[in-house]
């Protein structure tokens, strides 16, 4: 079983590039997308060439903004959208698919913004999302993946000293949010299985950052502690282009 997660930064834009053949080559059983910037119907239309999947998409009330989706080769038992809190559910940031032995959640965590105007909102989101995940986990293990918009540790970004407490994605408040996920038994699979590996999943479009590999690891697969032994591999696919992010994944 292979699950991948990809912030596509606009599904209609990326579908016009190499997205369809890339996904066919990756050959995942479940594909979780973030920042689709599209309605569910637009997601279906853009990905019509990606056959063999059941598609479940969530969109923001604001057009062309945020949005998440799950593509699954097998039909889930149930699919839900959002976390059940109106304040947090207008931006289409969560899709959850329930399978026999676990939940798969695709999440696009709010960005604090270049001026950090949403840092306070981001903190309230992190707290509410953790409660949501733990409620799900009381029923069966969770696999939550997506763009968490934070580099957790210095190893997770190319220039930690320059960015610490100065840039969205590496503020202490955001790091504290990720610490809470980990303290509450949600394991960062990539770091658990690759403790010393330096690899990134996002690069700025500016100053040739991707070519120079001046990047950040802000896309994650977190799993319930009890489920970690079933994760054989956690990987980052730096060779897939089309977005400012690249896909990340796990093999069960």
Provide an overview of this structure.
By secondary structure, the chain is α+β, with helices and mostly antiparallel strands. It has a single domain, classed as Deoxyribonuclease I, Chain A (4-Layer Sandwich), CATH 3.60.10. Helix content is 25%, strand content 25%. It has helices spanning 11-15, 19-26, 40-46, 119-137, 160-163, 172-183, 189-193, 209-212; strands at 2-7, 30-34, 54-58, 68-72, 78-81, 94-98, 103-108, 142-147, 186-188, 202-203, 215-216, 219-224, 233-236, 248-251. The strands form 3 sheets. Strands 3-4-2-1-14-13 form a 6-stranded mixed β-sheet. Helix 4 (119-137) packs parallel to helix 6. It is globular, with a radius of gyration of 17 Å. 42% of the residues are buried. The model has no long low-confidence stretch (mean pLDDT 98).
Task: Going across the biggest sheet, name each strand in turn.
Answer: 3-4-2-1-14-13
**Main beta-sheet strand count, sense and barrel state:** 6 strands, mixed
Mean pLDDT: 98
Work out the helicity level.
25-40%
**Could you tell me the number of beta strands?**
14
Structural class: alpha+beta
CATH superfamily: Endonuclease/exonuclease/phosphatase
Low-confidence stretches: none
The ordered string of helix (H) and strand (E) elements is EHHEHEEEEEHEHHEHEHEEEE
Q: Quickly count the domains.
A: 1
CATH names the topology as: Deoxyribonuclease I, Chain A
Radius of gyration: 17 Å
The CATH architecture category equals 4-Layer Sandwich
Number of helices: 8
Name the overall outline.
globular
- In percent, how much strand structure appears in the residues? 25-35%
- In whole angstroms, the N-to-C terminal distance is 5 Å
CATH class: Alpha Beta
